[in-house]
Amino acid sequence: MPPPVWRSYCWRSARRCSGFLIGEDGLTLDCEGLRLRNGSFELTADFSVPQGASVAVMGPSGGGKSSLLAGLAGFLPAVAGRVCLNGAPLDGVPPGDRPMTLLFQEHNLFPHLTVAQNAGLGLRPDLKLSSEDKARRDAALDEVGLSGLGARYPSDLSGGQRSRAALARALLRDRPLLMLDEPFAALGPALRADMLDLVARIRAEQGATLLMVTHHPADARRIAPLTIFVDEGRAHAPVETEVLLADPPPALKRYLGEV
Ligand SMILES: Nc1ncnc2c1ncn2[C@@H]1O[C@H](COP(=O)(O)OP(=O)(O)OP(=O)(O)O)[C@@H](O)[C@H]1O
């Protein structure tokens, strides 16, 4: 059973998040004729992600996986098309007002804040935490295996511990779209599997929709029934992970061979 602190902020009914109406089963994500620009690189995306789905994002280095997530988060301009959440367009909505969290592989923590403060930002950006907030924060740190390390600074943690602290903050943000860009690349296989299972469990409890960039087919198989293949500036529509990996198209086969 999850600890009560997680259940206490899981959605039990439809609610509003950043002005978007979110159903109890999460949100749908639609990229409609989307074209994103990252310097001279362009990425196209035209697909739908079903409500509350867990989706891996895979493809060769430089294909555009990070650009896709950065574009959805509003960090890259759309030169054409649009992104909709539950049918509502995100046109002009700044990154901070989008009901989503994007977790990168690195650079997720503020070096001048302790682990507890970094995690606490997921609850209140001004860090004025109530005693209930503090209990949630501490439970989140326990969940990711950082009990007793709240007073440390990021520079005093291992790479894996830093990624777990960032995960605690992302989970505390409790946004209906959770996007992870290779967040556990610094972890060994056993710990990575643990973190993936934790993400999967909390995603299910929160009813969030998940997009996760990974280079590991095993990660996709473990928690993502659907996969978006991104290659040469095109994000393909999500397909069943098992079906895709069982009979990959030539570009994916080449990529998996290299991995
Ligand atoms: N800030 C930038 N300015 C210009 N071009 C960029 C910038 N960031 C990335 N690119 C280019 O955009 C393309 C897609 O990069 P992106 O990081 O989205 O790929 P990726 O699939 O996530 O790769 P990887 O698996 O190596 O992280 C690459 O050709 C990259 O060189």
From TrEMBL:
Organism superkingdom: Bacteria
InterPro entries linked to this entry: AAA+_ATPase, ABC_SmlMolc_Importer, ABC_transporter-like_ATP-bd, ABC_transporter-like_CS, P-loop_NTPase
Keyword check for Iron-sulfur: no
Pfam families in the record: ABC_tran
Entries under PROSITE patterns matching the protein: ABC_TRANSPORTER_1, ABC_TRANSPORTER_2
All copies of domain ABC transporter, residue ranges: 22-257
Keyword Cell inner membrane found: yes
Molecular function in Gene Ontology: ATP binding; ATP hydrolysis activity
SUPFAM superfamilies per the UniProt record, alphabetical: P-loop containing nucleoside triphosphate hydrolases
Keywords: ATP-binding, Cell inner membrane, Cell membrane, Membrane, Nucleotide-binding, Translocase, Transport
Family matches, as PANTHER family: SPERMIDINE/PUTRESCINE IMPORT ATP-BINDING PROTEIN POTA, THIAMINE IMPORT ATP-BINDING PROTEIN THIQ
Name by which UniProt lists this protein: ATP-binding cassette domain-containing protein
Species in which this protein is naturally found: Oceanomicrobium pacificus
